[in-house]
């Protein structure tokens, strides 16, 4: 691979060798819809990266670009330093995509047998079945499986070639809590074996449970990147609920308050830290009652993060109009 | 046909960049497995086997063995004549449904993308569909012959039998090509209806249900443009009931039709690529 790099880039090759998949300044449009806008995104060897965003954010588009199933309008997608459509790279890649219909009359082991045959050094069938938790289902026809079991089969097809890089597009979408946790366990087992994984999800909890690093994507743009702790810290805060005679404007002027809204007879105050604000509230309103302090949930934090950017975009648009 | 398949293969390799260096044995294994599982998939699909196998067999038993078995058509006993016509009918159905319905569904519902993201040799997918259609075609012809042999007194020299089966199974190719073309231009839901819309009228006009000489003159003229007519005439010629037109002309018509269909399928293939690569 290094040999194919041009001379001046050779100094960079040591660094870029660690990057197994990247989108570089990628724009992708479907007609007038801008699915991805200037996306820069890197996955390093041995890392589990979650691409987190709401439905329609561009997650699947990003994965398909990295699989060479789509081509960017501008910018480029690279896998192992080369073109994702390069068959050599496809040999080292496995993918779990969202599929409407999988041939239902083939048995689990038959599906795995066929996909394994495409690769040079596939895993043994028993190993694949064990890794995907399908040992007892290997003779079942795909059409007779439950939703969670079907996802496990697609997962098995993604890993059966023992690839270095695995793409999991919404691996647990539509699964109940139990099935989701089951699949998380399988994914965790897999990544402890040193694989590089890019997964997409719209559950912050899932990204948090599996990923070393999270990139938050919304409306085709990466709006935040970092470790799960960093992402949560960026958004997580406290929610203070109380009944008070203080006006909304007065509350907004308390230092540290990020948001205030009325909630029936009470007010809800958002802030990074609760203590100073609670002290201030009690000092200003002796009759304050019904005080509750809660942590903002992960999902709420994520919502806040993506909603902020969409309102930012709206403002930008308004300015440009 | 060779040129089209070659260009299909080369265009996919161009799109994919360099080829993977697999051993010939490994490549053969992939093609075999792809065909084996395509066959098993269809064999277990009741909708496919029931419609594709049972209709020609049922019609043959009813019209060839139960009702008219003592009569002759064009100097050939009806049970032998109808192996040729219902054989053509069966081959056409097995080939069209085997290729078009599966391709339209795989394309429309995402399965083909999963396969394309894998290192599967793209051509293996199409070869598997064509080979499977041929196996089902051969099965239908052999079942019809066995029934005719057992219950209709059909006897023919081994060479003639070989040529009859060979011609009909080779005749699967034009309809597989047509099926691939249809599969690229229909959706998962519209494919079966579209196939029937073409398959049933074509079969009628080609004289596969009502023997061609009983059809109105107009229809007999239309038949000349129908690929199944030419396949049926080749098969009828072998059992001694042909219209004594030139066999070469029938083969040429079928070859031209195959080329056109592969050409249309190739446009569809390219269109799918452009949609992804545009």
Describe the overall structure.
The complex is a heterodimer of chains A (321) and B (278). With 321 residues, chain A is α/β, with parallel strands linked by helices. Helices cover 37% and strands 27% of the residues of chain A. In chain A, strand 11 (257-263) and strand 12 (266-271) form a beta hairpin. Chain A is elongated and about 75 Å long. With 278 residues, chain B is mostly helical. Chain B has one domain. Chain B contains twelve helices and two strands, in the order H-H-H-E-E-H-H-H-H-H-H-H-H-H. Chain B has helices at residues 2-16, 24-43, 46-67, 78-108, 111-117, 122-151, 158-170, 172-185, 191-205, 217-223, 227-238, 247-277; strands at residues 72-73, 76-77. Chain B has a two-stranded antiparallel ribbon. The two termini of chain B are 29 Å apart. The model of chain B is unreliable at 1-17 (pLDDT under 50). Chain A binds chain B through residues 64, 67-71, 83, 85-88, 90-91, 93-95, 97-103, 105-106, 110, 113-115, 117-120, 141, 154, 157, 161, 167, and chain B through 15-20, 22, 26, 29-30, 33-34, 37, 40-42, 44-45, 105, 108-111, 113-114, 116-120, 188, 276-278.
Helices and strands in order:
The complex is a heterodimer of chains A (321) and B (278).
Chain A: H1 10-17, E1 19-30, E2 33-44, E3 48-52, H2 59-66, E4 74-79, H3 87-91, E5 93-96, H4 108-117, H5 125-131, H6 147-159, E6 165-169, H7 177-191, E7 196-201, H8 204-210, E8 213-218, E9 221-226, H9 228-235, E10 238-243, H10 248-252, E11 257-263, E12 266-271, H11 275-284, E13 289-295, H12 298-320
Parallel strand pairs in A: 3-7, 3-8, 5-6, 6-7
Antiparallel strand pairs in A: 1-2, 1-4, 8-9, 10-12, 10-13, 11-12
Chain B: H1 2-16, H2 24-43, H3 46-67, E1 72-73, E2 76-77, H4 78-108, H5 111-117, H6 122-151, H7 158-170, H8 172-185, H9 191-205, H10 217-223, H11 227-238, H12 247-277
Antiparallel strand pairs in B: 1-2
Helix pairs in contact in B: 2-6, 3-4, 3-6, 4-6, 4-8, 4-9, 4-11, 6-7, 6-8, 7-11, 8-12, 11-12
């Amino acid at each position: 691979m290094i040999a194919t790099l041009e001379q001046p880039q050779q100094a960079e090759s040591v660094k870029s060798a660690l990057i197994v998949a990247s989108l570089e300044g990628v724009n992708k449009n479907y007609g007038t819809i801008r699915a991805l806008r200037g996306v820069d995104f890197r996955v390093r060897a041995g890392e589990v990266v979650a691409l987190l965003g709401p439905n329609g954010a561009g997650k699947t588009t990003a994965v398909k670009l990295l699989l060479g199933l789509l081509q960017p309008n501008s910018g480029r997608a690279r896998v192992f330093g080369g073109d994702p459509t390069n068959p050599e790279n496809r040999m080292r890649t496995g993918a779990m995509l969202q599929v409407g219909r999988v041939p239902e009359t083939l048995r689990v082991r038959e599906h795995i047998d066929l996909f394994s045959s495409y690769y040079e050094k596939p895993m043994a069938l028993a190993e694949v079945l064990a890794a995907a938790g399908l040992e007892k289902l290997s003779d079942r026809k795909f059409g007779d499986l439950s939703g969670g079991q079907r996802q496990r089969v697609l997962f098995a097809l993604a890993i059966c070639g023992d690839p270095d890089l695995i793409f999991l597009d919404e691996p647990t979408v539509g699964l109940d809590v139990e099935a989701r946790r089951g699949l998380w366990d399988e994914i965790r087992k897999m990544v402890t074996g040193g694989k590089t994984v890019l997964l997409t999800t719209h559950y912050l909890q899932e990204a948090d449970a599996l990923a070393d690093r999270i990139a938050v994507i919304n409306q085709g743009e990466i709006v935040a990147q970092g470790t799960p702790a960093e992402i949560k810290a960026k958004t997580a805060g406290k929610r203070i609920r109380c009944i008070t005679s203080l006006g909304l404007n007065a509350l907004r002027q308390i230092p540290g308050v990020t948001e205030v809204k009325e909630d029936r007879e009470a007010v809800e105050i958002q802030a990074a830290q609760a203590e100073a604000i609670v002290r201030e509230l009690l000092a200003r309103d002796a009759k304050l009652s019904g005080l509750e302090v809660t942590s903002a949930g992960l999902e709420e934090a994520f919502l806040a993060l993506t909603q902020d950017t969409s309102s930012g975009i709206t403002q930008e648009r308004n300015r440009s109009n | 046909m060779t040129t089209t398949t070659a260009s299909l293969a080369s265009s996919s390799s161009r799109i994919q960049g360099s080829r993977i260096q697999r051993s010939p044995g490994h490549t053969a294994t992939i093609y075999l497995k792809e065909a084996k599982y395509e066959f098993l998939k269809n064999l277990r699909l009741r909708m496919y086997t029931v419609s594709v196998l049972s209709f020609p067999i049922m019609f043959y038993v009813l019209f060839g063995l139960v009702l008219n078995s003592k009569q002759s058509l064009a100097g050939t006993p009806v049970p032998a004549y109808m192996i040729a016509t219902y054989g053509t009918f069966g081959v056409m159905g097995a080939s069209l449904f085997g290729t078009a319905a599966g391709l339209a569904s795989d394309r429309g519902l995402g399965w083909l993308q999963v396969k394309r993201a894998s290192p599967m040799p793209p051509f293996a997918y199409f070869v598997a569909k064509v080979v499977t259609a041929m196996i089902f075609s051969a099965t239908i012809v052999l079942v019809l012959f066995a029934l005719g042999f057992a219950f209709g007194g059909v006897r023919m020299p081994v060479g003639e039998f070989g040529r009859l089966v060979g011609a009909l199974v080779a005749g699967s190719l034009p309809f597989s090509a047509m099926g691939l073309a249809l599969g690229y231009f229909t959706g998962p839901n519209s494919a079966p209806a579209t196939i029937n819309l073409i398959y049933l009228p074509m079969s009628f006009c080609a004289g596969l249900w009502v023997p061609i000489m009983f059809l109105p003159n107009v229809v007999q003229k239309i038949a000349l443009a129908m690929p199944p007519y030419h396949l049926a005439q080749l098969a009828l010629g072998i059992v001694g009931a042909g219209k004594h037109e030139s066999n070469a002309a029938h083969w040429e018509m079928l070859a031209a039709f195959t080329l056109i269909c592969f050409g249309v399928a190739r446009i569809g293939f390219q269109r799918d690529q452009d949609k992804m690569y545009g």
